[in-house]
Write a structure and sequence with these properties.
Helix content is 36%, strand content 21%. It contains 22 helices and 24 strands. The strands form five sheets. Strands 1, 2, 3, 4, 5, 6, 7, 8 and 9 form a nine-stranded mixed sheet that branches. A hairpin with a 2-residue loop joins strand 8 and strand 9. The protein is globular, with a radius of gyration of 30 Å. The N and C termini lie far apart (91 Å).
């Protein structure tokens, strides 16, 4: 007796359903994508008991012709592709022809549809393995798909479904992901007969605010960059609007929602200098590229993709977002009193997207001002000119004077404040006082500005040190290389050796540009002959492994940048003005002007705000004015 045999079609469909239809939210996603592929402009979703009892999707799309209805419930039957060339350049959301057949095999499904330019609508039903004959029905236009009693014939799978509230939450999340991707389509969502949300056709930014909340919309930075056939657009939240989990992160590749580790890594790296490592950024981003350059057929649920040139994609996304987040203070980065952990000026809604129960404070905390190395150590990292220009800050080495000595010279700034406010020349306004040698108080057109002077000056010094090392134009130069007296060899795996082989064969000097000289000694051994000068004290083997891993996965090494930035951050902290030091009014104003001209100065090197705004209305509420 043969042990290997063909499986029945019904069992094959149920196995496929286990991959495609994990829960009601998975079925909803597939049905919504079908509606969008059909050219729908209005889509209505109705759920009963979290989508387990009933899931109904109605649209006004092109519809399904009578002769195609039966094929719609057949496995691997689709109108989206017909050849391998179509698969490699697929532009539709669906293409496999598995979703409807899989859903129908584990539920009681009805499809009613009226194709364009036809006089009649038709209906077909499926009860697990049984498919009814096609019969006429009443329908104005489009398609209605009803999925009842999901997993009624596979009770083992049904036992793994969660409570009604949990399943509805997953359905709502899937619904919102689709709603965000198509602001040109109207959507409606009902649950247990109650209308929960309705979205009219709108502009993208308005749709983002409707779905993710007004707080998110008010704290976003627009992104729209194009290069070499790639385009990324959408919005990213300012670093001050951060989350304790990654639940407000949406990435779409050619309109398809994806979770891709390469894209996530590029985005995280762009936020690295301005976001605390325990927090998560928020964003809605759309990546557009030639469909031939991305493979969407790598995951049953089509939520993962593979890029033909992942390194180029990573660099493009990183540089685009890094540029958007580099706005000087006063242009886009403004923390408000409502973003502090304790806010005496107004309550915080625990249900708002920006609320977090995390004990981590959103305001600038006290920083340890000690340096890891003596100042002479840092002098060796730079040329004599750079060391003189940036290590000896005019602010940190200015002569100490009392506030009274600086008040007269500071009055000239304050007296002209109203005129300058109208011109918006100085978004941070003009200094009026200092508190306990730690915070600077300033007045601007909106009201009161509170600045943590050490954190702000540390960011200014940090950016100046980076620019000094990178060159005046801000672009990375070839990193200075320090040859090792005795090369350090180590056992390497095949991927590490292959990465070095590719780098040497390309003749692009990628390793030399990073300050490395690595040679292949044997098929399993590499030797490090030179390392970056400023990292010569680091472990050469560990550093080399990190760099090779980054080169292999992302096409560029962030490991060196991270190590370098750690050293520069320590140096900036050492050079920045100390807490408990009195500043004159001109010194405080000079600090404000430097903040306005410095990229990313709204956040310190540790990812915490350097200043926040208290509006006049907040102050009026505090003192109950007008009541």
């Amino acid at each position: 007796m043969a042990l290997i045999h063909l499986l029945p079609d019904q069992l094959i469909s149920q196995i496929a359903a286990g991959e495609v239809v994990e829960r009601p939210a998975s079925a909803l996603k597939e049905l919504l994508e079908n509606s969008l592929d059909a050219g729908s402009t209005e889509i209505s979703v109705s759920l009963v008991q979290g989508g387990v009892k009933q899931l109904r999707v109605a649209d006004n799309g092109n519809g399904i012709a009578q002769e195609d209805l039966a094929m719609a419930l057949t496995r691997h039957a689709t109108s989206k592709i017909a050849s391998l060339d179509d698969l490699e350049a697929v532009a539709s959301l669906g293409f496999r022809g598995e979703a409807l057949a899989s859903i129908a095999s584990v539920s009681r499904t009805q499809i009613s549809s009226r194709a364009l330019d036809t006089k009649h609508a038709w209906r077909i039903a499926s009860n697990g393995s049984e498919i009814s004959p096609i019969e006429p029905t009443a329908l104005d236009a489009g398609t209605i798909i009803e999925v009842d009693d999901l997993y009624f014939n596979t009770p083992a799978r049904r036992k793994f479904l969660k409570t009604e509230g949990t399943e509805f939450g997953h359905c709502e999340a899937a619904f919102n992901r689709v709603v965000l991707s198509r602001p040109d389509v109207a959507f409606m969502l009902q649950h247990n007969g109650r209308a929960l949300s309705r979205y009219a056709v709108s502009e993208p930014t308005k749709r983002f605010g409707e779905v993710l909340g007004a707080d998110f919309a008010a704290e976003t930075i627009a992104v729209d960059e194009s290069a070499a056939g790639l385009r990324i657009w959408g919005v990213v939240a300012k670093p001050t609007f951060n989350r304790n989990k990654s639940d407000t992160q949406y990435v779409y590749v050619n309109g398809r929602f994806v979770r891709d580790k390469l894209i996530s890594h590029a985005i995280r790296q762009a936020y690295q200098d301005v976001l605390h490592h325990d927090r998560h950024p928020a964003f809605v981003l759309f990546l557009e590229l030639d469909p031939n350059l991305v493979d969407v057929n790598v995951h049953p649920a089509k939520t993962e993709v593979r890029f033909r040139d992942g390194q180029a994609i990573h660099r493009f996304i990183f540089h685009s977002l890094h540029k958007a987040l580099a706005s000087p203070t006063g242009v886009s980065n403004a923390s408000t009193a409502n973003q502090a952990a304790y806010n005496p000026f107004g309550g915080q809604n625990a249900n708002s997207p920006s609320y977090s129960a995390s004990p981590y404070p959103q305001y600038q905390a006290q920083i340890n001002l000690s340096a890891n190395e003596p100042s002479s150590f840092y002098q060796t990292l730079f040329s004599s000119n750079n060391a003189q220009n940036y290590s000896n800050s005019s602010l940190s080495n200015a002569p100490l004077q009392s506030h009274r000595d600086g008040l007269d010279s500071g009055n000239a700034f304050i007296n002209d404040a109203n005129e300058n406010y109208a011109q918006n020349d100085f978004p941070l306004g003009f200094a009026v006082a200092q508190i306990h040698g730690v915070y600077v108080l300033a007045q601007n057109a909106q009201g009161l500005v509170v600045v943590d002077m050490h954190a702000a000056h540390e960011r200014i010094m940090y950016e100046q040190l980076k620019n000094a090392l990178d060159g005046k134009d801000g672009h990375n130069k070839t990193v200075a290389m320090q040859p090792l007296l005795l090369p350090v060899s180590f056992n390497a795996d095949r991927l590490e050796v292959a990465t070095v082989q590719e780098a040497l064969a390309s003749n692009d000097g990628s390793l030399q540009q990073l300050g490395f000289d690595i040679a292949i000694i044997s098929p399993t051994t590499l030797a490090v002959r030179a390392v970056p000068t400023m990292l010569q004290e680091a472990d050469a083997v560990t550093l080399a492994r990190d760099v090779l891993r980054d080169l292999r996965e992302y096409g560029a090494s962030r490991a060196l940048t991270e190590r370098r930035n750690e050293l520069l951050g320590t140096m900036a902290c050492h050079a920045a003005v100390r807490a408990n030091r009195s500043l004159t009014i001109p010194e405080m104003n000079a600090l404000l002007r430097d903040m306005e001209a410095t990229e990313r100065s709204g956040m310190c090197n540790h990812g915490r705000p350097t200043w926040f705004q208290v509006s006049m209305s907040d102050l009026d509420k505090m003192f109950m004015r007008g009541k």
